[in-house]
Design goal:
100 residues; mainly alpha; 4 helices
């Protein structure tokens, strides 16, 4: 239950971050990219995989954990989706005029 809450907070963090850099706001995008945000997001993928395989091992020994596993897995996937949306927001560009 504690890990699920952490993933929900990670999801909320990425959703808020994506909203902050939308616009596009080149200054915010550049600042985040210069501070290696992509490396931090990459670390998230490693943590998610470690948690996923650890919990899979637990569920094999105890089927009563299935509902908890599904809740955790859902929170993990929603956090990953939010991270991807955030990364996409870093690549938004200004729309071109018809004359460009």
């Amino acid at each position: 239950d504690g890990r699920e809450k952490q993933y929900i907070l990670v999801q909320q963090l990425f959703e808020t971050a994506a909203e902050l850099v939308q616009g596009p706001n080149m200054a915010n995008q550049a600042l985040l990219l210069q501070n290696d945000i992509c490396a931090d997001v990459n670390r998230l993928w490693f943590i998610v995989r470690i948690d996923e395989f650890a919990f899979r091992g637990l569920i094999q020994d105890n089927e009563d954990l299935f509902d908890c596993w599904m809740d955790l897995l859902k929170a993990m996937r929603l956090a990953e989706v939010a991270a991807l949306r955030f990364l996409l927001s870093l690549h938004e560009e200004e729309e071109l005029d018809e004359d460009d």
